[in-house]
Every structure is written in structure tokens, then in C-alpha cells.
Amino acid sequence: MTRGVAILGSTGSIGTTALRVLARQRERFRISALTAHSNAALLEEQVAQFHPAYVGLVRPNGGAGAWRTGPECLVEAASRKDVDVVLNAVVGAAGLDATLAALERGKRVALANKETLVMGGELVSQASARGGGEIVPVDSEHSAILQCIGSRPRSEVRRLVITASGGPFRDWPREKLETATLADALRHPTWRMGRKITVDSATLANKALEVIEAHYLFGISYDRIDVVVHPQSVVHSFVEFVDGSVIAQMGMPSMELPVLYALTHPERVHDAGVPPYDPVEMSPLTFERVRWDDFPALRLGIKAGRAGGALPAVFNAANEEAVAQFLDGRITFGGIARAIEGAMRSLTNRSADSLEALRAADCAARTYVKEMVAC
Amino acid sequence: MTRGVAILGSTGSIGTTALRVLARQRERFRISALTAHSNAALLEEQVAQFHPAYVGLVRPNGGAGAWRTGPECLVEAASRKDVDVVLNAVVGAAGLDATLAALERGKRVALANKETLVMGGELVSQASARGGGEIVPVDSEHSAILQCIGSRPRSEVRRLVITASGGPFRDWPREKLETATLADALRHPTWRMGRKITVDSATLANKALEVIEAHYLFGISYDRIDVVVHPQSVVHSFVEFVDGSVIAQMGMPSMELPVLYALTHPERVHDAGVPPYDPVEMSPLTFERVRWDDFPALRLGIKAGRAGGALPAVFNAANEEAVAQFLDGRITFGGIARAIEGAMRSLTNRSADSLEALRAADCAARTYVKEMVAC
Known about the structure:
The structure is a homodimer.
Chain A (H helix, E strand, L loop, with lengths): L2 E6 L4 H12 L4 E8 L3 H11 L3 E4 L10 E2 L2 H8 L5 E4 L5 H11 L3 E4 L2 H18 L2 E4 L2 H10 L7 E8 L9 H4 L4 H4 L9 H9 L1 H14 L6 E5 L5 E7 L4 E5 L5 H9 L31 H12 L3 H17 L5 H14 L8 H20 L1
Parallel strand pairs in A: 1-2, 1-5, 2-3, 3-4, 5-6, 6-7, 8-9
Antiparallel strand pairs in A: 8-10, 10-11
């Protein structure tokens, strides 16, 4: 019996990685639904290769044939009866509705959409409780933590340690950071990713988002989630248990394993997607403390996570907008964290008990940053 | 409900470590039986502290009071009704009988006695099958592997990688190794252990024994067990799974965790025995290939393991005798491996289907080495 998979965001980096993995795992999984944002040409190729029963295109440019179009296609694909697992690789807040729809219908969500938990951590927990669905993370750090915990009860976990490559500015002196250029920021040492995520890993805002996600995914308090810089990106994260033992998940940097594991968890299946890890070749492994004062976005994000309510949504939206402004050359690298801090200070924290409230917070934060830059 | 523990070898390094751990875990475990080899004074202190129902002394020097004496006390202690877990920290082949007795009575054996599996791997499997007992390893490398596998099925394991500190001669040139002195050999970089084990870690014979033990403990073929040198002894071993993921168990070098975990597996309990692992403090972690040609004892041991039958017992006994001769200054460091090789070449391999056959092989190998040295 194969399990039906819906891939939301099939033409993006995670989506194409997932299709590479699934092309090798046809005995276990079938592609039931594919949706893409706007890349109709690539989606068409994918449809020809995998023959999904459902195809959606969020923003069609010209003809989309028999495909469903518009943003509703995400929830539609995630809700289908023939879908057992929804790989949510949508970028942005639009991913949240689809996650909730899948969880309410008892499906597994393989989650690569940060907004789902950062904005809607509390709504997501409620939807899982109602519908019996479960979230399994795709992000390499969270996948590592899940693999380290395995099926052990959470009460045995003392501490999570999320590793950070440190980004391209890991060893830059503080005074140079302020005016780091876009070209500098896009030179990521170990992972090849999209521009937004690469900038997030230069500011360490990505680690703040990961800490918030880990808090919701694993039910661990912020006091017990640490971040450590590990430039080689070989140890994908650690878990320290109550008896003092530390379990780490390691390997070559590759997204194929976390994608596959999110589908098969708690089982493991034969797969050749990850280059074999040779500890000698990858030696030495180094670890450094986070330069908290020089990368303020990390501390701001964790502060937002601790505050809860709509503040994580404010942090996330302000960061997205600030990165967009940086990518457009309108603010300096140092300005990204200042924009986030301004938004978090200026906007009143609200509760996060509805999608509407979260969207309002998201919108207010973006507007704040845009206006701040325009002034 | 506390579980009853028998400690065989309570005055040795592992035994005293175990009592330190158990003094903190009195809510879960009670000491039902203690046996020691000959250190009556320390045993008396332990008895006063833990009040075991049974006390045994293998080799009494003078009065032993109400204690049982003689080598039979090991099997007696291991067979008691009030004992749920037998921590077998006996040095030498005498540990094998006690392991078999406990397994046949359905008990858990927390195993720190190498001879049990190296000599009697096949007998042990049979005894477990008959009586329902189980072996849980105490050795830090095997404990690490068990912790990495957790409760996952063995079919998901692709490869075990056992780490080796490399011992004091890790970076010595080949020509100097031949005449390395006892003082050189006893300068172990990371672990503080007895003299025999320290010499074994200088020849890498200890890794050969661990590979053989891992083969029996985890049911993994020799082709899929590797050794890698890791001088910091922070990564205690790795497991590579069929999907390419690598899970490692890490932490400060300390025997308290493996001892505790052998008692609580698969659960973990709160304990403060292991110093907290600070990845930054312990950075960098390095890995090197084994210098197979310069440390021939490792290859000889694995060859014995692959051959099976009584050859692992021959390897083990020849090594023990050769190390004793080295400790007494009668052979050079290089002579240890030559003695082992001679014994393995000269003695016909027999089957290992009885304790008697194993003891005969053990005895023949010791005699061979003694005679070789005397010539």
C-alpha cells in the first residue's frame, strides 16, 4: 500500500528535492497532489513525470489547462481524501491555512513552512488535538532533534542544542557587520538556499525562527533550547537527556534525508540520497559560542517567542519585510535588526487565538517596516 | 518497586563507579548482592554502606566472616531470586559462567566483562534464547551504539562506527612502536583505566575485542563494523542507518553514564553523574583513519572474530598473556602482536559449543605464549 503525498510548493528548493527523493521511493509513496506558486513550466514537467490526481497553481501566468488556480488550491490539495501526508513547502503565511486543514483531517504534515509554527504555534496545537494530525519537521535541525529523541518521552529531554553554521559573517568584526553588502550576505559557507533564507542565516534570524519552532514541535521551554555555532554544518543538532547523555544527528549537509525522514518517521527506509558521511574527511568539527551582541536578530526572535501571543508573528513579518528591503538595497545589513526591533517595540502585543489576529499582526509589522524605511 | 542489583567485581573500577551511581539511585535500585575478587577491606566498607543480602569474596586472605567465598560465589550471586540485574564487572573468563547463569534465569546482565562475548558469544545467544535474559553493554562504545539504535529494528542499521582514542601511540612513527616502554604505554590520553586495559588501548587490541562484542551484541556482520580514531573521546560511537542518517552519542569521558544506562535502558532517569558536555569547550573534534599496518593486534582480533569458533578465545587469551609478559618486562611492545599472531597460527581452530572447549582454547593459547616467551 503506497501512501499519498501532496507537495505544496513543488517547484521550490524543498519541493524539487522531495520529488527527487520520491522518484526513488515509488514503492512506498505516490504523488497525489502537486501545487506550485507560479512556475507553470516546471510544474508541467513534474506533472508529466508523476501524474498527480490534483494539480494547483497559485498564480497562473496565462493558461493553466485543467489545473486548479488561485491560493485556495493549497487548502484543497491538503484536504484531499487520497492524501495521507502533506509536504508543506510553501513560502510565507499562506502555508498556515493548509497546515491547519491537513491537521484537522488527521493527516501528517511534513513541515518546511516556518510561518506555520512561528505565527500559528498555538492554533496548530489546537488543530492537531481536534483532528489527530501530526507535524513532522523537514528543517534539518528539527529533523535532527526528532531523530535524536526517537520515540522517547519528552520528559527525558533536558536540553535541545540547535547548531548554526554562523553564516558568512561568523568571524566578521562587529564594526564591519553594519555595512555588509548583499553580495557578502549571499556567500553562505555550507548550505545552498534561496536568497531570503541565506540572509536570515547571515543575521541568525533563521535560528530565532528555529528556536520558536522547536519550542512548539517538542514542547520544550525556551530556557532549555540553546544555539551553538558549528561552521561545518555536520552535526545537525544535539539533544541532551536527563541522565546527561548527548545524542547528535550528523551527516553531510543535504536536505534529502530530512525530507525522506519526515515522510517515513519513525521508520527508516533504504535510500541513497545522502552522500556517505566520512568522519575523517569532514574532520575537524568545531563549535563556537554565539556572538549574541553582534547578531541581535537572534535575541529579538527568542524574546518574541518567550512573549508569545502575536509577537512571534510580528518578529517574522518585520524580518521578512526588512530582508526584502535589504535585498532591494534600501537598508543596510545592520538595519535589518533595527527594523525588527522597532516593529516589536511599537506594536502592541495581541493574543494569537485566530488566523485573523495573526494576519493583522503580520500586516501591521510589514507596514511598520515599510514606513520606517520610507521615512 | 526497586530492582535488585548484583554487582560482580564491586571493588574494581567499574564496580566502584556503579556504587557511586547507585548511591544516587536508591529509589529505583537496591544492592542485593556484592562480590569482589580479593579486596576484603573495601568490600567491607561497601557492605556497611549498602547492606546487600549476599556477599561473596572469590579469594579470601584470612577471615571473610559470614561471606561466601570461592569462585562459585559469582554464579550464586548472579542466580539469586532477589536479583533482577547482574552487573558483571569481573575481569577474565570467570565472568562467563555468571553471565550464562543470569541469562538462563531471565535476568538482565549489564555487561562489563569482555570475555563473556569474545569467548562465549554463541553460548550467550543460546542462553538468552533459553531463559529470556538480555545483555545490555556497559562499555562506553557499545552503550553509545545501543543509545543510538534505541528501540529501532536492527534491519534499519547500515553500519556501526566504533571510535578509538588511538591510545598513547596514535601518532608515534612505526619504528619507535616496536620498543615502546611500559611507562609510555600507560600514559593514556583520555581515559583512566587499569594497566591491562590501558595496554590494550595502546595496541588497539581493545578495539578488536569491541568489534567482536558489537558483532554479537547487535547482530551486525563484521563487514559493517568500522573503527575510526577520535583522540578526544567525546563521540563515543556512531551508527549509520539505511537512509544515510548518522546518529552519535557524545559527552564527557565518564563511565557513570554507561553504567547507569545499562541499568535503566531503554528508559533514562535524572542523574548528575556526567559532567555537562559543552561542545565549545571540547572543540575541535577530530577523526583519523586507523593505522592498520602499525597496530596489527586490531586486524588479528577482527580476523579471529570473522573466523569464529574458538579463535576469538585464542586471540583474547594470547593477548592477555602477552600483555602480562609485557607488563613484566619480558617482551617488547611489538612482541605483543607477534605473540598473538603466533598463537592464532599455531592452534587449530575448534568449535565453541561448550564452556570446556572454550577453556581448552583459552588455556592452549596462554601456554603457547608462555612457552614462546620462555624460549
